[in-house]
Specification:
By secondary structure, the protein is of the alpha/beta class. The chain has 10 helices and 7 strands. The protein has a 7-stranded mixed sheet with strand order 3-2-1-4-5-7-6, sandwiched between helices. Helix 2 packs across helix 3 and helix 9 packs across helix 10. The radius of gyration is 18 Å and the shape is globular.
């Protein structure tokens, strides 16, 4: 499982009551992993990707940041440390409570709320940054989530979204080999088992992954909502790569078939998307 990823952040069927609880093993795992150096490095890379999308004069902020699926709050705290105004949301009540306690202990003023990504509690156009790591795959009504992300962002605001990758056979959602490539009916069967008699299949998540995405499909869906979307190869800092790495990155940028192959070899989809509007242009 990816650190700081809470599979309990999905959405139940319409009319169902929200389940804000979770297996104690699930909470314990994220409580520990959210504090690791590996996780902090991952969150710092996300921050770099997001700030890449802003003009230099805006990067110091303070920015209005919303962390959707905040879990124990490590990502929210990272942005708060930089002086940004941060809001966090998660459907898992225990993790939100832990995030609040950690922020209070550090003297940070972060708003944490229990809720769903399909109904964000913030007003239209109030956020500069919307962070959505490893959430969309768990939400049956994922298109409503995209609508909400677009709604709360200002023109020029930046959405960071990471999720699974249907093109790549390597995945960490289910403890099954090549699961990304399973046909839909077989996936539905294992989803049901994970929710009932075999929760270990999906790492004890209350809401296991039910959606599988590609960068290309999400770019299209975000484009319909007024976003200009970039993949991991667009946002990678070439200056930090070896000479061979810079050459490979340049080739991926120039040759669409090679970029497709690179996506096939990448387990997770990462997108930085800029909300277009009056006075905004692609970076």
């Amino acid at each position: 499982m990816q650190e700081e990823r809470t599979g309990n952040r999905g959405s139940p069927a319409a009319g169902d009551q929200w389940d804000h609880s979770s297996d104690s093993r699930f909470v314990d795992y994220y409580a520990r992993q959210s504090l690791t150096e590996e996780n902090r490095e991952r969150l710092e890379r996300i921050r770099e990707d997001v700030l890449w999308a802003f003009p230099p004069e805006q990067r110091e902020g303070p920015l209005e940041v919303v962390d959707i699926g905040c879990g124990p709050g490590a990502q929210s705290q990272l942005w708060a440390d930089d002086g940004h105004r941060v809001h966090g949301l998660d459907i898992n009540a225990e993790l939100v409570d832990l995030a609040r306690r950690r922020a209070e202990h550090e003297g940070q003023d972060i708003e944490f709320v229990v809720g769903s990504a399909t109904e964000l509690p913030w007003e239209d156009g109030t956020m500069d940054v919307c962070l959505v790591p490893e959430l969309l795959e768990h939400v049956p009504f994922w298109q409503e989530c995209l609508d909400e992300f677009a709604r709360v962002l200002r023109p020029g605001g930046v959405l960071f979204l990471s999720t699974n990758n249907r093109l790549c056979p390597v995945q960490e959602e289910f403890n099954l080999p090549l699961y990304s490539w399973y046909p839909g009916p077989l996936k539905r069967r294992f989803e049901e088992l994970a929710r009932t008699t075999r929760p270990q299949l999906a790492n004890y998540a209350t809401y296991p992954a039910v959606n599988w995405f590609t960068f290309y499909g999400l770019r299209r869906d975000l484009g319909r909502r007024g976003f200009n979307a970039f993949d991991r190869f667009d946002t990678t800092d070439a200056s930090r790569k070896s000479p061979s790495g810079r050459l490979a990155l340049a080739a991926i940028g120039q040759l669409p078939p090679l970029r497709l192959l690179a996506h096939v070899l990448t387990p997770y989809t990462r997108i930085v998307a800029i909300k277009q509007g009056t006075g905004t242009t692609p970076r």
